[in-house]
Amino acid sequence: MTDFSKIKILFDVKSSNGFSEDEIEDILNLVNNLPRPIIDYYKELGNCDFNYWQDNLIRSNGKKLYQYKIFLNDKYVIICCENQGVCYAGIKKEDLSKENPPVYFSFDRKFWKIGCDNLIDYIHGFTYVHAALYLKNNGYLSISDNGKFFIRENFKNKRVIFYNWILDGYNTEFYGDYDDTILMLTERELFYASNNKEHFIEMENKWKGIDLENG
Predict the structure, then answer these.
(1) Over the stretch 183-199, which tens digit does the pLDDT of each residue have?
(2) What integer pLDDT is reported at residue 73 of this predicted model?
(3) Mean pLDDT of 36-41
């Protein structure tokens, strides 16, 4: 079983909340094969509400359904759709038998670029995006180059990068000193959040008196 303990801590999930066996079988009947990490995620956390706060995890039973029209592509199996249909994440069909394949992003389901180096990192990044935007304790700053340097130097790197998600040619990076804390750094924006109020305050105090938005 793939380890999703960090995701559980980030969202304060105490127990499994996955797709039913019938739903997973329905998905596999469509694609015949999927890499183990995404199947494990479906089983462990697929039914959690946070999978649909911003972007939509693809499922096959009619809930949050973009499914049968876009789930299968000529060369890709789509596993996520941005909530307004702006961007899609998919796995190459030729990679479905790989243990931990790369994930690709597309704006039109025709042209695809590498989005994340591997599926396990993608799953974590997918949840980090939702956490940074929607956890109860959250904040936002426009950020300068000096501000980006400060974040990179002063917070633990989660070692997950998204390339070309939403904005073509730009990266999204993730940081945080605790498993219950997340900072999402884009080209000119910083979103940050935590489910732990004390850790959230500690995070903000790190840049207290420092102008991250200018300079």
Answers:
(1) 999 999 999 999 999 99
(2) 63
(3) 96
Could you tell me the domains of the chain?
Answer: 5-125 (3.40.1580.10), 136-206 (no CATH)
Please tell me whether the overall predicted TM-score, pTM, comes out greater than 0.85 for this model: yes
Q: Whose CA is closest to 137, among 190, 185, 195?
A: 195
Short-list 165, 77, 166, CA closest to 121: 165
| Cα distances (angstroms) measured from residue 45 to each of 40, 50, 90, 199 | 8, 9, 19, 24
DSSP structure string for the chain: ----HHHHHHTT--S-----HHHHHHHHHHHS---HHHHHHHHHHTT-GGGGSSEEE--SSSTT--HHHHSB-SSEEEEEEETTSS-EEEEEGGGTTSSS--EEEESSSSSEEEEESSHHHHHHHHHHHHHHHHSSEEEEEE--HHHHHHHHHHS-EEEEEEESSSSTT-EEEEE-SSTTEEEEE-SSEEEEEES-HHHHHHHHHHTTT--SS--
